[in-house]
Every structure is written in structure tokens, then in C-alpha cells.
């Protein structure tokens, strides 16, 4: 079952989770993100979802936003051992040391990439379009905790890879129309 079919089946989830997924599908999934901090936030959520459900990430998204200083790349890049301990004790997020350390390392890498590309979005745009295997190789070279599924979902969810929506989905048409206007 595609994500589009899943979110359009109200019997697939309880009503609160259905609303979470429906809102994400209709207004965020596959939509380009212009702001670096929001792109970082999406990657952070994708990394933390590994081995868990996307429903959990949607439920805890605001907890992550708060715990990671609004997904501020600069603030996360400057995190100290005390911040790691704070995050490891935050029951509102996923308390996994490898994922926390990856977020900090990845923020530091993004800061470095911005020196050459002006922004992280600039770095992503400079490499677009690549195939999924090429993207995965590039991410593995530059970031931590970025396997094929994480990279693929991050790039698909932010519009860098096709396939977020099936062709018969109204959101597919909406995204295509917006892309054609550019």
C-alpha cells in the first residue's frame, strides 16, 4: 500500500494518528523546503525514525524541535557533552546516543558545507538531480547515520527525489503544478 493510499484510508489508523499522517501527507511530504534549519529538522527526524515508526516521529516532532533548539543548525553544531546528556534524559525524544551524536556531527558538517555553498539547500541544489544510489554515496561521505532508507526518505520527503506521491494522488498534481510554475 502506498503512503497516499494509506493516508486516504481512515480505517488504517486511529483518528488522531490519521489526522497527523493526513496533514503531513497533504502539506509537507514531497514539498520542497527552502530553510536550512527545517531541512536539518527533517533529516534529524528521518534519522531518529530508523527502526521505529513514522507515526512516533510525527507525534514527537514538536518535542524534537524544542529539544534541538528549533532545529537550529548553528546551535546544534555547538552542542557540548552537557547537551548530549540533556538529550539522553529527554523522554520526549528518542534517547539514542548514536542518533544524538549523528545530529551534532551532521550539523557541524552542514556548517562547513555552507562555507562553500552558501547554504545547505545550496549544497543539495548543487548536486540535484542525482540518482538515489549517488545521493546515498554522497551522504555517507559527508554525514553520519545516513543509510539508503534514511537518505531516500529524506530526499523524497523534501522533493529532491521523485516518488513521494502516486500519480493518482491530488497532492501529486498540486506539486507538479507548482513545479511547472517555477
Structure description:
It is a single chain. The model has no long low-confidence stretch (mean pLDDT 94). With 182 residues, the chain is an all-alpha fold. The chain folds into 2 domains: 43 residues, no CATH class; 135 residues, Orthogonal Bundle (Endonuclease III, domain 1). It starts with a helix and ends with a helix. The radius of gyration is 16 Å and the shape is globular. This is DNA-3-methyladenine glycosylase I. Keywords: Metal-binding, Zinc. One of its GO terms (molecular function) is DNA-3-methyladenine glycosylase activity.
Give the total of beta strands. 0
Largest sheet: none
- Named at the architecture level, the CATH assignment of the largest domain is Orthogonal Bundle
Spatial shape: globular
Helix content: 55-70%
The CATH topology label of the largest domain is Endonuclease III, domain 1
The CATH superfamily of the largest domain is known as: Hypothetical protein, domain 2
Mean pLDDT equals 94
Number of helices: 11
* Gyration radius, rounded: 16 Å
Class from helix and strand fractions: mainly alpha
Sequence stretches where pLDDT stays below 50 over 5 or more residues: none
Keywords:
single chain; 182 residues; mainly alpha; Endonuclease III, domain 1; 2 domains; 11 helices; 0% strand; globular; Adenine_glyco; DNA-3-methyladenine glycosylase I; metal-binding; DNA-3-methyladenine glycosylase activity
Amino acid at each position: 500500500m502506498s503512503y497516499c493510499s494509506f493516508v486516504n484510508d481512515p480505517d488504517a489508523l486511529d483518528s488522531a494518528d490519521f489526522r497527523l499522517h493526513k496533514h503531513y501527507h497533504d502539506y509537507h511530504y514531497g514539498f520542497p523546503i527552502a530553510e536550512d534549519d527545517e531541512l536539518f529538522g527533517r533529516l534529524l527526524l528521518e534519522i531518529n525514525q530508523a527502526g521505529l515508526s513514522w507515526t512516533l516521529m510525527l507525534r514527537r516532532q514538536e518535542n524534537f524541535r524544542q529539544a534541538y533548539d528549533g532545529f537550529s543548525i548553528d546551535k546544534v553544531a555547538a552542542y557540548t557533552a552537557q547537551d548530549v546528556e540533556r538529550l539522553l534524559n529527554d523522554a520526549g525524544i528518542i534517547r539514542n546516543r548514536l542518533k544524538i551524536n549523528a545530529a551534532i556531527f551532521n550539523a557541524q558538517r552542514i556548517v562547513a558545507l555552507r562555507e562553500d555553498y552558501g547554504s545547505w539547500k545550496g549544497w543539495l541544489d548543487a548536486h540535484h538531480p542525482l540518482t538515489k544510489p549517488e545521493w546515498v554515496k554522497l551522504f555517507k561521505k559527508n554525514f553520519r547515520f545516513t543509510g539508503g532508507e534514511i537518505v531516500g526518505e529524506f530526499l523524497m520527503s523534501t522533493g529532491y527525489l521523485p516518488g513521494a506521491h502516486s500519480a493518482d494522488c491530488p497532492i501529486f498534481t498540486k506539486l507538479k503544478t507548482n513545479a511547472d510554475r517555477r
